[in-house]
Description:
By secondary structure, the protein is an alpha+beta fold.
Amino acid sequence: MGDYVKILGRINNKRSVRYISKDYLLRVDQLDYFKLFIPEANNSGMFGETLTEPIVGEPNECSADTFLCGGMFDLRIEPENFAKYFKTKFFRALLGIKKTTHHCPPIVWETIPVQDFKPNSDIDWTKSISEIDRQLYKKYHLSADEIEFIELNIKSMDPAVKTEYEADLLMKYDDLVSALLKKYGAAKHDYFTDRECTIKNKLVSRTAEGLFCHHIDEDKAIMLSNDEYAARNPFEYQKKNRLVYCNLLEHLLLHVKIAEEPRNPDANENELPGIGGAIYYLCKQLNDIYAGKEPAEEWRKTVVSKVQDNFDDYIRILRHLWSVIEQNPLYKTIITKQMLCTGWDGKVVERVLEEME
């Protein structure tokens, strides 16, 4: 239909397409280029909300005024990358500063920086939406507080993110620690009452709430809750500002992130931070839970209640952990898939192993 132009619009409140002869159309500069069509009326204007997804427009396509037309691109990949930018939390946080209704007039876009959407851009647009967000945070030098505000207040539009745990799985270790500090609050007491690490501080425990205490510096040293191992390391690792609370699945995620990320340059020699706690402690507890074993103690019942309905999330985390193991030559020689699926009795939980195959 070379003599006709495709027009995107709305009829009876539904997206519709019609065609019109070029003879009836005024010259439109964007007509011969790729572009991105964005609904002009988009959700309610509430800060942090998700938005209706934009549509990539081809050359010889235009839209009615119910859509905004963004860009004049030579390559189709450029509006596709623009659409990814549109979905980032960074983009929508800036849009939300001025967008207070469902309309999107020109003024609401003023605070949003323009990007290079070509394949050789300073942003790697092949990554997930969440990973692109992290690149943007770094590019514009956002502070930890600013990142935390965005992550907590802007809803995800990353198609890879479906649950809170999946979002956590995309975070870096430090970002996950920051998110958990915000979620559960900072610790109020040091882990040990003495510098020799012989007496654990009972006031640290929040197991009655179903929460565990994780040492943030376990990316440098293993088993910091053990008195013998703790005594071999700086007491600063036991200070209240180096502790973070988490439920059992979040605790596993923290250890997975430690194992996944490049080794901390300050890590102790001859130790493998993160991986041991994941395999030999946390997975065993979780496997028993998903095997249906019921604890007797009330505090353990509370721990179970926090994660018992998240079996699918557990399997996603385990699969991710297994991919980390497979990519690490050392891990791969000492850890089997069955080890990830074993309970405290040493038996493989078949339900878990079947999901891992």
